[in-house]
Design goal:
Number of strands: 6
Length: 73
Amino acid sequence: AQNGIIKGKVVNEINNEPIPFANIVIQNTTIGATTDIDGNFEIKDLQPNLYNLLVSFLGFETKLIPEIQVSNS
């Protein structure tokens, strides 16, 4: 079985524009990713579990996205 992936897109909640180069980190770890020019990111090779993501970008409030379920892909 392969490990799982968390992938998504970071956008500005006000105008829905993508946020390039935002930081996404799994809470209490050093595992994470940076969004590309279109706001997309992937964090690969994750063990099945629940993960909390912290999304941050200079000038914006850091956002916690709780309990993302990762299962074998």
